[in-house]
Automatic annotation (TrEMBL):
Keywords: Hydrolase, Periplasm, Protease, Repeat, Serine protease, Signal, Stress response
EC number(s) reported in the record: 3.4.21.107
Residues that hold substrate according to the record: E75, H152, D182, G252, N253, S254
Domain PDZ per the UniProt entry, residue ranges: 298-389, 426-478
Organism field: Devosia soli
Protein's cellular compartments: Periplasm
Protein's name according to its UniProt entry: Probable periplasmic serine endoprotease DegP-like
Length: 512
């Protein structure tokens, strides 16, 4: 029997698993029971045609792809002491950590965990640098040895070992990583290695998916499920667009492939949703379309370049759409164009709603981010924007996104000590902002008002109404009257909190 990662430390521990796949046939005709029970009759109703499922198992598929799936063993060291940064198995999110607390004296794993898990050593033991071993999964994508895995599997590793399906090993080199998509490419030596390819046509929700990987160090584990959803956005991701699958994915599966029934890679397993740390049938995979784009760049240059538009954006809610007369609540509204950014130079303004790029519709802010990131730096894109109740077209020449690009928020406004002028409208009590930056400071919010329901709070600063600057109570009252004069029931309000601006659609009837 081929040794697993766990059996490398203690051979006496064995594990086996039996997967039973039950095929469910489809019923081609539905029937309705009518009349008395003694004289029951069966009547045909609308016939449903269900394709016959001929797939009796996935053994042939697994046998074909399994040689290209590898386990990845990572070694890393962190300094000793309570203030040391988290290592591969700690809060940074490594998949597998050999560090079990409170093992009794004489336990067969005690010596091993003392060495690699930070040393339990007993009370008063001298602190030592912590050596971590973490495990993940990966797969070979070329005959000459390029391997795809997750960035978080190999991040900060001092040594990466690739373990093949037959148990043989090879130390790998990290070619490049991309933190934004959590992908990495490794290189091992070889000229005629088995490899797998990516799908050309995107899989659909409901399609079969087969996950092969190294959960809990059990290399070559196969699980089966379906694609449960697509376009998922999960916390901590810059660009979202994950596939959701229900094939069992656990700790150590990260970086491993999910296959379709043709043996093509549909995604790279990356994360699970789990309230208890175990599999609950909700896993997320980076789709093949994204993986191909990133992996090709990493193989070619070791880095990833992305287009940069230079806008701060947010989703368009129904309230916002209503406030500007946009027929559907789609697109991304521009909070602010970046100083000296390409969008601002091309004429994009705060309050513009970007509804399409190069003719492709934009659903939300995340969709716009993904779309622009997928464009080449120095390329020119055509933006369709909604401004002043009508569509406009703007051409923008993108620049390159700097990976450390970030926005430094200015200091939050300081409430004035004594301001005589104020107004109370729409559930808000407003006073002039006394720090010289303009706008009206929200001094009070009625708890049951539409403003409160939409998240406005004391200390927020109202900067604009309907894209018009607001610097006084008179400006505010006039702007609200102007919106009502247009026949709109919702006003587009730009507010700032802690120096960061955002838009809301505020209903003008105080009930909200």
């Amino acid at each position: 029997m081929r040794p697993t990662l766990l059996s490398r430390t203690r051979r006496w521990l064995g594990a086996s698993a039996l997967a039973l796949l039950v095929g469910v046939g489809g019923v081609s005709t539905a029937f309705v029971l009518t009349g008395q029970a003694a004289n029951a009759q069966v009547r045909n109703v609308a016939q449903i045609a269900v394709p016959t499922v001929n797939q009796q198992g996935f053994a042939d598929l697994v046998q074909a792809v399994k040689p290209a799936v590898v386990s990845i063993l990572v070694e890393a060291t962190e300094p000793a002491g309570p203030g040391a940064p988290a290592g591969p198995g700690g809060p940074r999110g490594r998949d597998f950590q050999f560090n079990f607390p409170d093992l009794p004296e004489g336990h067969p794993f005690r010596d091993f965990f003392d060495q690699f898990g930070g040393g339990q050593g007993g009370p008063g033991a001298e602190a030592k640098p912590r050596q971590f071993m973490a495990a993940g999964s990966g797969f070979i994508v070329s005959a000459d040895g390029y391997v795809v895995t997750n960035n978080h599997v190999v991040q900060d590793a001092t040594k990466v070992t690739v373990i093949f399906d037959d148990g043989s090993e090879q130390v790998a080199t990290v070619v490049g990583t991309d933190e934004r998509t959590d992908l990495a490419v490794l290189k091992i030596e070889g000229k005629d290695l088995p490899f797998v390819t990516f799908e050309d046509t995107p899989s659909r929700v409901g399609d079969w998916v087969v996950a092969v990987g190294n959960p809990f160090g059990l290399g070559g584990t196969v699980t089966v499920g379906v694609i449960s959803g697509s376009g998922r956005n999960i916390g901590g991701s810059n660009y979202g667009d994950f596939l959701q699958i229900d094939a069992a994915v656990n700790t150590g599966n990260s970086g491993g492939p999910a296959f379709n029934t043709k043996g093509e890679v549909v995604g790279v397993n990356t994360a699970i949703y789990s309230p208890n740390g175990g599999n609950v049938g909700i896993a997320f995979a980076i789709p093949a379309s994204t993986v191909k784009q990133i992996v090709n760049q990493l193989i070619d240059s070791g880095t990833v370049t992305r287009g940069y538009l230079g806008v701060s954006i947010q989703d368009v809610t129904k309230d916002i759409a209503d406030s500007v007369g946009l027929p559907t609540a789609k697109g991304a509204i521009v909070r602010e164009p970046a100083a000296d950014g390409p969008a601002g130079a091309a004429g994009v303004k705060s309050g513009d709603i970007i509804t399409a790029v190069d003719g492709d519709s934009i659903d939300d802010a995340l969709d716009l981010s993904r779309t622009i990131a997928g464009k080449a730096p120095d390329s020119t894109v055509e933006l369709t924007i909604w401004r002043d109740g009508a569509e406009q077209k703007l051409s923008v020449k993108l620049t390159q996104l700097k990976e450390d690009a970030g926005q430094t928020a200015p200091n939050a406004p300081t409430p004035p000590a004594d301001v005589p002028e104020s107004t109370s409208m729409l559930g808000l009590t407003l006073v002039p902002n006394g720090d010289g930056s303009g706008g009206l400071l929200i001094q009070d919010v009625q708890p049951d008002s539409a403003a409160a329901q939409r998240g406005l709070a004391v200390g927020d600063v109202v900067q604009e109404i309907d894209n018009k600057p607001i610097n006084s109570v008179a400006d505010f009252e006039a702007a609200i009257s102007a919106v009502q004069g247009k026949g709109l029931a919702t006003a587009l309000v730009k507010v700032a909190r802690d120096g960061e601006a955002r838009f809301i659609g505020l209903p003008l009837n105080e009930e909200g």
